[in-house]
């Protein structure tokens, strides 16, 4: 039986999971693949810590390049993370004709266009299922299953940390700070959680999925990103009263010949499946021209779920190696010569429904003037609710609007603020069906 | 650009959908595949009806064999259905070295072992994503994504007709008969709905998934099958009161070295995602050793969703044709020489929780005697509820049990019946987490 040799760069949580899976499921994998996947070398800065693996110590090295340069190795698993050294390793591996499997969403989102170009020139496969939504096979679904579908829209809960925090606040009434602290304690959040809670991690994933779905170049820069740090317990409670749940959603939607690309806290009706996706679980909805909505749910992070995605990519590339079918599926779903120049719709042009909460001045006529300003900008108000709380001068006022244009909404809010009809900044949460 | 020639057998709803998709998404498909998929010939008994396709009439024939025998044709799409003529066509196509794409779950479930053996000998690909759960990529997920996972269990709502009927009864209080009639009016149920409502269609799909998940031969005969015809509005209402929803579930679960394989109405807790899968939508949950639960939801039937699965298989096989990588993935996930001899656990040995509804004699001591009999068979009762209704002699009595063995439950019910503690047959619905 043929042996495919694997080199792993980075023996952190996921790297250890991959090594463990290749050891524990050795028989299973060979009975499916018809070849053995052997860990030939592993590079990590720390090769002293015992990770409970059976791989012999002489296969461990602190020198990543020695793994990449090893002529016996067929596939490199890049689990270094970050964009600098990982990119160097990528480029070197491509130059050496090594196929690559990665979980590095930041690298693919920021440098994918360039790296896939290099890989194509060298005839090298790059697989990145683990970079988006953990074990959920959304990359394979986009690249293969939906091959005959024009994609209308996609949406996803793709950051476990944010979903964990929002679930804790929603279901247990925790404060944002406590929920974040718990997420960190339970290993669902990094010591520096900025990338997660500010929405950038989700944006990386959206940039990748948009490219796969719409045949556009990966475009991270034009994505609108708003994290969950301003979501309050109050807004979550109000949302529940109206029959909605707040989730950090990534949305990629075809609108008037452009693609909406936005990441922000979103109110979702309680009967939408997204509303039932809780804790650190991820979910992606894709709407194809033939399939209609397809909804995939699973663990979006963690040692073994991510390892599972890596191993499925290893098996895929190994099948290409065995049958000589390298680059069988285009990296980004579409052949590079058939990609289009779709651009991202400016956020100002996005049309959606809104939840707005003001601290409105508690004086006669204020509601009428606020409504008037909304009217001037063609924003219809579907309901108005004065809430308990507030202080001597102001009361919390919640409005739900009909479909309105982001630019109009922004200007209306600026007017309301400049006329001093409200105190502080209004809270704006977009509502999706 | 290379052209792959397709022959379609059967121009019913799905066949028309496939032809339409290949026409309408021609550019999209070629920009993903790097080849054109051309409909070379279509066979159907009715070649007169106008189906709104642009395919020229001289490509239509009533002679299926002339399509199979056409030396120019690379891939046959079998959409004849049934097990007799379709099987003949399969065998002839394999003999002629044609690759085959099918939606025929009955054929694969009943004759797959034999057909895959023939196909292997001829080096022919057979793809059947459309045979289970419509556009949901569960076959690909089993065969490829989960390559490194030992599967612990799978479960699915895989019959749109049944789910539509149960949803109508649950959400609108319809009777079974009215719900079925509506399903037929809306095209969700066949004129003869037996295969659907008696659970056999779901069993076909379970037989296929069990083989893919566990590496066992396809085994349809040993699956326990119970349809939805005995589910009453009352039981659905009682279930809702206890916080459960009733769904026709297919369950394939690893238990003590064997595989549970059963299709029956199942009570599912309201917070389980399955409980929110309504109307004709399908859903499959797979629990892998590394992934944990993965949950896929989508349209399980209908013209375009099924066509989408067929086209994704056409693209897959075309990629094999282009890169010369035929039989790249084993038909049934596992290489034929590495399949195991796992068998199906006899239904008597299955352990689960139960909902039991009796018409119990309205006499003192009856409850105590019934409880006593359950006790004799080691069945713990978690709660007892006397319901309104009944007649001069009997009252509806609902019991929810702890985990119990099917055989014990059956014997307890037989004892209760023979002692005339209740009237008529007890209603038994299994409860899953």
TrEMBL record, chains A, B:
CDD domains: ACT_HSDH-Hom. The keyword Amino-acid biosynthesis applies. It is an enzyme of class 1 (oxidoreductase). Pathway: Amino-acid biosynthesis; L-methionine biosynthesis via de novo pathway; L-homoserine from L-aspartate: step 3/3; Amino-acid biosynthesis; L-threonine biosynthesis; L-threonine from L-aspartate: step 3/5. The keyword Amino-acid biosynthesis applies. PROSITE patterns: ACT, HOMOSER_DHGENASE. Keywords: Amino-acid biosynthesis, Methionine biosynthesis, NADP, Oxidoreductase, Threonine biosynthesis. It catalyses: L-homoserine + NADP(+) = L-aspartate 4-semialdehyde + NADPH + H(+). It comes from the Bacteria. Pfam families: ACT, Homoserine_dh, NAD_binding_3. Its EC number is 1.1.1.3. Residues 355-430 form the ACT domain. Belongs to the homoserine dehydrogenase family. This is Homoserine dehydrogenase. It comes from Desulfoluna limicola.
């Amino acid at each position: 039986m043929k042996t495919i040799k694997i080199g792993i760069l980075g023996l952190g949580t996921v790297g250890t999971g991959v090594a463990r899976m290749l050891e524990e499921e050795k028989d299973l994998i060979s009975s499916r693949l018809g070849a053995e996947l052997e860990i030939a070398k592993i590079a990590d800065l720390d090769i002293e810590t015992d990770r409970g693996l059976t791989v012999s110590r002489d296969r461990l090295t602190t020198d990543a390049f020695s793994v990449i340069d090893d002529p016996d190795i067929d596939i490199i698993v890049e689990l270094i993370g970050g964009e600098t050294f990982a990119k160097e390793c990528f480029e070197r591996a491509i130059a050496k004709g090594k196929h690559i499997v990665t979980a590095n969403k930041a690298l693919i989102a920021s440098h994918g266009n360039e790296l896939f170009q290099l890989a194509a020139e060298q005839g090298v496969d790059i697989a990145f299922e683990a970079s988006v939504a953990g074990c959920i096979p959304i990359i394979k679904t986009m690249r293969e299953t939906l091959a005959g579908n024009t994609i209308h829209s996609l949406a996803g809960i793709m950051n476990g940390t944010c979903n964990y925090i929002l679930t804790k606040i929603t279901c247990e009434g925790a404060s944002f700070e406590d929920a974040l602290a718990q997420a960190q304690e339970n290993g669902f959040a990094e010591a520096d959680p900025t990338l997660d809670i500010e929405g950038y991690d989700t944006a990386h994933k959206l940039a990748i999925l948009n490219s796969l779905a719409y045949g556009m170049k990966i475009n991270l820069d034009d994505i609108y990103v708003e994290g969950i740090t301003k979501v309050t317990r109050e807004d979550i409670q109000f949302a529940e009263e109206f029959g909605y749940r707040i989730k950090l959603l990534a949305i990629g939607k075809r609108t008037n010949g452009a693609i909406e690309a936005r990441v922000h806290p979103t109110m979702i009706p309680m009967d939408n499946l997204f509303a039932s996706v809780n804790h650190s679980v991820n979910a992606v909805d894709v709407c194809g021209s033939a399939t209609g909505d397809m909804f995939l749910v699973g663990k979006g992070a963690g040692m073994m779920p991510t390892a599972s995605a890596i191993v499925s990519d290893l098996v895929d590339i190994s099948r290409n190696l065995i049958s000589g079918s390298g680059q069988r599926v285009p990296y980004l779903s579409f052949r590079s010569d058939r990609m289009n120049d779709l651009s991202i719709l400016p956020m100002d042009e996005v049309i959606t429904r809104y939840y707005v909460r003001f601290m409105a001045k508690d004086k006669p006529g204020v509601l009428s003037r606020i409504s008037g300003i909304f009217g001037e900008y063609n924003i219809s108000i579907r309901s108005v609710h004065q809430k308990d709380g507030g202080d001597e001068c102001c009361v919390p006022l919640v409005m739900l609007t009909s479909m309105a244009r982001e630019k109009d909404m922004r200007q209306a809010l600026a007017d309301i603020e400049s006329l001093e009809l409200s105190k502080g900044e209004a809270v704006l949460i977009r509502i999706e069906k």
